[in-house]
Specification:
This protein is of the alpha/beta class and 334 residues long. The chain is 39% helix and 13% strand. It contains 13 helices and 8 strands. An 8-stranded parallel barrel has the order 1-2-3-4-5-6-7-8, surrounded by 5 helices. Helix 2 packs antiparallel against helix 10 and helix 11 packs antiparallel against helix 12. The chain starts with 22 loop residues before the first strand and ends with a helix.
C-alpha cells in the first residue's frame, strides 16, 4: 500500500492509501426503519443525521417516498413517506455543504409524479429508485421524472442474486442510457460471496464506466459478509457504498458504518461521531430492537432466499428452534 504522502488520486479503482473518489451513503434511518415500520422518533433521526454530518458522510437516506394510497400513514411511521415538513423539522432549511438528503422511491409503490416535488421546493437532493428486474420500464420513467425535477438520481437493481447474468447486463445497459449518476449492486438476500461481488462489480463497471456513471454496493449481513463484500467491492473499483450505524437494518442488518470508515483511512471521514452515536443511541436501542446476525438469516442466505421467513420466525413463539426452521426451509426447496 502506498503511503499517504503519495498521490491519493492515483488510478481510479486502484489500491492506494485512500480513494478520494469514494462516497458513503448512510441508510440507517431507511433500512433500519424496515425493522419497526419506520416508527423512529425525531430525536433518533436527528441524532443519526447529526452524527453522519459530523462524520463527513456524503448522503443520508431518511426513508421512502411511499404511496399513501398503498401504505396508510396511520399504520406506518413518518419516514415511510418523508414528507417535506418532517424533513425540514429535522434538518432545517437546505444549506450548502453537509450530507445530501436522500430518499428511496420503490418502483410501483410511489406516487412519484405528485409526491416528489420539484427540487427547488425541497430539502431533498437525491432520489434513489429501487426496482426488480421486471420493473425497469417504470424505474426509468421515475428516474427521468426526478432528474427533470432537478434531483440527482441513483438506481438500485434488487435481488440480483436470483437474476440471470445476461438479464443483469441488459438492465445495466438500459440504466447506462438513463440520467442516473450511479447504479448500485444490491445483495438483497445477503447471499453473495466475495468472488461473486468482484465479478458483478466488474460487470457493472464495464457497462457504466463508458457512460460516465458510477457503481455502488449495498450489502446485507445475513452471512456476516456485508463488510467483507463491501471491501471486495472497493477493491473491484466501485466508489459508492452503503452503510448503517452499528449495522442496523432489516434482518441481519447492513455493513456497519464504523467499520467502513475505519477501513477507508480517508481523512474526510471521522469515526468518533459515529462511535458516540453507537454508545449513546444504538447500545440502548439494541435492547429493544432485534437486528444483527442470527442463524435463521444465515439459512435463508445460504438458500438464496428473501429473509422474510427468518424475520417471521424470529418474531414467533420458537425463535431459537433453528433445526425446525432449517427443515421447513429445506422442505420448501424440495
Amino acid at each position: 500500500m502506498q503511503s499517504k504522502s503519495t498521490d491519493a488520486s492515483a488510478t481510479k479503482g486502484g489500491w492506494v492509501a485512500y480513494r478520494p473518489d469514494i462516497r458513503i451513503l448512510d441508510c440507517t434511518i431507511r433500512d433500519g426503519g424496515l425493522i419497526n415500520d419506520h416508527q423512529f422518533d425525531d430525536a433518533f433521526v436527528s441524532s443519526v443525521y447529526r452524527a453522519c454530518a459530523a462524520a463527513g458522510v456524503d448522503y443520508v437516506e431518511f426513508g421512502y417516498k411511499a404511496s399513501k394510497k398503498i401504505y396508510a400513514p396511520s399504520q406506518s411511521g413518518k419516514w415511510k413517506f418523508c414528507d417535506e415538513d418532517d424533513l425540514r423539522r429535522i434538518i432545517g432549511a437546505k444549506k450548502p455543504g453537509g450530507p445530501k438528503i436522500t430518499v428511496m422511491a420503490d418502483a410501483t409503490r410511489t406516487d412519484y409524479r405528485e409526491d416528489i416535488l420539484p427540487a427547488d421546493r425541497s430539502v431533498i437532493g437525491c432520489v434513489r429508485v429501487a426496482c426488480y428486474i421486471n420493473q425497469i420500464p417504470v424505474a426509468i420513467d421515475m428516474i427521468k421524472d426526478a432528474t427533470d425535477k432537478g434531483y440527482e438520481t441513483m438506481a438500485q437493481l434488487m435481488a440480483v442474486s436470483v437474476v440471470q447474468e445476461h438479464a443483469v447486463q441488459d438492465a445495466l445497459e438500459i440504466f447506462a442510457k438513463s440520467p442516473v449518476s450511479a447504479v448500485y449492486l444490491v445483495d438483497s438476500f445477503g447471499a453473495l460471496y466475495s468472488e461473486q461481488v468482484n465479478a458483478l462489480i466488474k460487470l457493472y463497471k464495464q457497462v457504466m464506466d463508458g457512460a460516465g456513471k458510477e457503481v455502488g454496493f449495498h450489502g446485507h449481513n445475513n452471512m456476516q459478509l456485508a463488510f467483507a463484500n463491501t471491501i471486495e467491492a472497493v477493491v473491484a473499483g466501485a466508489n459508492r457504498f452503503d452503510a448503517t450505524i452499528s449495522g442496523i437494518g432489516r434482518g441481519a442488518g447492513n455493513c456497519p458504518l464504523e467499520l467502513l470508515i475505519g477501513f477507508l483511512h480517508n481523512p474526510k471521514f471521522q469515526i468518533r461521531p459515529v462511535l458516540e452515536c453507537c454508545r449513546d443511541v444504538f447500545a440502548p436501542l439494541s435492547k429493544t430492537m432485534d437486528w444483527g446476525y442470527s442463524i435463521p438469516y444465515a439459512i435463508t442466505a445460504q438458500l438464496n432466499r428473501h429473509p422474510r421467513a427468518a424475520i417471521e420466525m424470529r418474531a414467533g413463539p420458537t425463535p431459537d428452534d433453528y433445526v425446525k426452521f432449517y427443515d421447513a426451509m429445506m422442505q420448501e426447496e424440495s
